[in-house]
UniProtKB/TrEMBL annotation:
Keywords (A to Z) from UniProt: Transferase
Gene Ontology molecular functions: folic acid binding; glutamate formimidoyltransferase activity
Annotated EC: 2.1.2.5
Pfam families, per database record: FTCD_N
Residue ranges occupied by any Formiminotransferase C-terminal subdomain domain in the UniProt entry: 150-252
PANTHER family: FORMIMINOTRANSFERASE N-TERMINAL SUBDOMAIN-CONTAINING PROTEIN, FORMIMINOTRANSFERASE-CYCLODEAMINASE
EC top class, as a word: transferase
Protein name per its UniProtKB record: glutamate formimidoyltransferase
Gene3D superfamilies named among the record's database cross-references: Formiminotransferase, C-terminal subdomain, Formiminotransferase, N-terminal subdomain
């Protein structure tokens, strides 16, 4: 799930989608976040997408409610079938070395020494890039390159709830397995969620947790989820939770 800091320019997004052709499983775009999440397979598609985004985008022309460090903000490597966490870590390190060598862009590595939230909070102060310059690239910023198990990215939209209250709700439901942000998205507010242990705390759990504080207007899956996570959710709740078989990684791999 590569996070690119562009969610409004459809011509650029179409061009970025084309460079992933053959390896693309999903694209999720949000104009308020001004961010798109590309779910791709392999090691070459992330490089093609990164190169195209770096050439097309500039942080100096970017504005959006979601925090970001770079035009290619997050590149995680996730082991799926027939690959290991060690394979993913090797791919992460080789990708970061390539980005710095090709474009002189600094890379923060997460999944071993640091978490992604730690980097977002402390970048350029107590946490410096692991590879490359110790200052942001003038147009591309920096890239957070990680290794992790599959997670579920999820948004819960709230209506008539102010931002301060939404941030308190986000804090209240945050756990070791649920990472949250409270954001303003147009007329709504949003609890933006990463479920980093979705077999322990999944979409059903975080939806119920937020609902204890405010009515959820609607839920939104960002990208895809593992079939094993979908299997833990009662079928009767799939529509309300915005999940389905067609939104699983396994279905998209089989039907791409």
């Amino acid at each position: 799930m590569i996070n690119v800091s562009e969610g409004r320019n459809h011509a650029i997004l179409d061009a970025l989608t084309q460079v992933c052709s053959g390896d693309l499983l999903d694209v999720h775009t949000d104009s308020d976040h001004n961010r798109s999440v590309f779910t791709v397979l392999g090691e070459e598609a992330p490089r093609r997408l990164t190169q195209a985004a770096i050439l097309a985008l500039s942080l100096s022309q970017h504005a959006g409610v979601h925090p970001r460090l770079g035009v290619v903000d997050v590149v995680p490597f996730v082991p799926l079938v027939n690959s290991s966490m060690q394979d993913a870590q090797i791919a992460r390190d080789e990708f970061a070395t390539w980005v710095t060598g090709e474009f002189n862009i600094p890379c923060f590595l997460y999944g071993t020494n640091h978490t992604l939230p730690e980097i977002r909070k402390n970048a350029w102060t107590t946490v410096m890039p692991d590879i490359g310059p110790h200052v942001p690239h003038p147009t591309a910023g920096a890239v957070c390159v990680g290794v992790r198990e599959p997670l579920v990215a999820y948004n819960l939209w709230l209506e008539d709830v102010d931002l301060a209250t939404t941030r308190r709700i986000a804090s209240a439901v945050r756990t070791a397995h649920i990472r949250t942000l409270g954001l303003q998205v147009g007329a709504f507010t949003q609890v933006s969620v990463n479920l980093i242990e979705p077999m322990i705390s999944g979409p059903n759990d975080v939806f119920n947790a937020v609902s204890q504080h405010a009515a959820v207007h609607h839920a939104e899956l960002v990208g895809l989820l593992p079939a094993s996570v979908l299997a833990t959710i009662p079928r009767a709740r799939w529509e309300d939770l915005d999940v389905s078989v067609e939104q699983t990684i396994e279905w998209r791999v089989t039907n791409r």
